[in-house]
Amino acid sequence: MTFEPTDLEGELLDEQRLLALAELTRVCGVSIEQVRSMVSEGMLHPRGAVPEQWVFRGVEVIRVRRAVRLQRDLEPVSY
């Protein structure tokens, strides 16, 4: 077995990095409605008064991805 190097691209997400609503949905693979729900439930705390102005800290990407994963893992399995 040979190892073929591949190019990886990434971005560090921390308290300083801000993402607009559209960018957050794209990065996390969620809908705007899912993000709105997370905001209304108090799980996310965007800056900005209305969704068009919302910006999120980079660390909230981790929170959204974790919530989506937990939701998926807790869904009933249909056979």
Summarize the SSE layout with pairings.
Elements: E1 18-20, H1 21-28, H2 32-40, E2 55-57, H3 59-74
Antiparallel strand pairs: 1-2
Describe it:
The chain has 79 residues and is mainly α. It has helices at residues 21-28, 32-40, 59-74; strands spanning 18-20, 55-57. Strands 1-2 form a two-stranded antiparallel ribbon. The longest helix has 16 residues, at 59-74. The chain is flat, with a radius of gyration of 16 Å. The N and C termini lie far apart (37 Å). The mean pLDDT is 88.
Q: State the distance separating the first and last CA atoms.
A: 37 Å
Count of DSSP H/I helices: 3
- How is the main sheet built? 2 strands, antiparallel
Helix fraction?
40-55%
Radius of gyration (Å)? 16 Å
Give the integer mean of the pLDDT values. Answer: 88
Number of beta strands: 2
The low-confidence parts are: none
Physical arrangement of strands within the biggest beta sheet: 1-2
**What would the principal axes of the Cα set say about the shape?**
flat
Structural class: mainly alpha
Question: Could you give the order of the helices and strands?
Answer: EHHEH
Strand content: 5-15%
Short description:
The protein is mainly alpha-helical.
